[in-house]
Design a protein that fits this description.
This is HNH domain-containing protein. GO terms for molecular function: endonuclease activity; nucleic acid binding; zinc ion binding. With 197 residues, the chain is of the alpha+beta class. 36% of the residues lie in helices and 11% in strands. A three-stranded antiparallel β-sheet has the order 1-6-7. Strands 2-3 form a two-stranded antiparallel sheet. The radius of gyration is 19 Å and the shape is elongated. 27% of the residues are buried.
């Protein structure tokens, strides 16, 4: 059985007490907080795309089709440029409340239901779990190697921090030093791949 990892370590939750702003772009700081500085769709941290400045605001129900929702906070998703451009104005129908019909459309990434359709395998690749998940996976280009590499880098950084703390407590443990070196080497290899894109 394959080990699957939720796309979000912590599910993003849009706050409901955000004061109304005059333009949807003014919500970016709030969205960044609610989405934990990660893309709502693929879970990639915003620093891989230049931070807040490089990230986009997606209108879940597209603004071109549903202009009355252009400034509706609960319709906004903090996302990476790749996911935003992939989804673009795609929508399965004429009702903003119906985000998918059969196996076509999208699930709001703030809903627990999102995790039923998209996950990561143990290598960090994003995989579709359902036919609707396949649609989302294809449209948002969730198969890009970049997404896996970013996830691996974050995972390795976390491991490096844990090992560093353990080594600091017992500097004479040779096996821990060897493990630390190995993880550091892998981390630098992954960084090299990311920088070469």
């Amino acid at each position: 059985m394959n080990l699957l990892i939720p796309i979000h370590a912590t599910q993003p939750v849009r706050r409901t007490d955000i004061s109304i702003k005059s333009k949807y772009t003014a919500y970016k700081v709030d969205l960044r907080t609610d989405f934990l500085k990660k893309c709502g769709y693929c879970g990639t941290a915003d620093y891989y795309s230049g931070g807040q400045r490089g990230f986009h605001i997606d209108h879940f129900a597209p603004k071109i089709k549903f202009a009355h929702l252009i400034n509706e906070y609960k319709n906004l998703v903090y996302c990476c440029p790749i996911c935003n451009l992939g989804k673009s104005d795609d929508w399965p129908g004429d009702d903003p409340k119906t985000s998918f019909l059969n196996d076509i459309g999208y699930v709001d990434p703030c809903l627990p239901l999102y995790l039923d359709h998209i996950a990561r395998d143990k290598s960090g690749q994003i995989v579709a779990l359902t036919n609707l998940g396949k649609y989302i996976h294809t449209k948002l280009k969730l198969n890009l190697k970049r997404r896996q590499i970013c996830w691996l880098l974050d995972k390795m950084e976390s491991q490096l921090q844990i090992l560093d703390k353990i080594i600091a407590e017992d500097e004479e443990n040779l096996e821990l030093l060897k493990a630390f070196r190995l993880v550091t080497k892998q981390y630098l290899e992954h960084i090299g791949i990311l920088k070469s894109e």
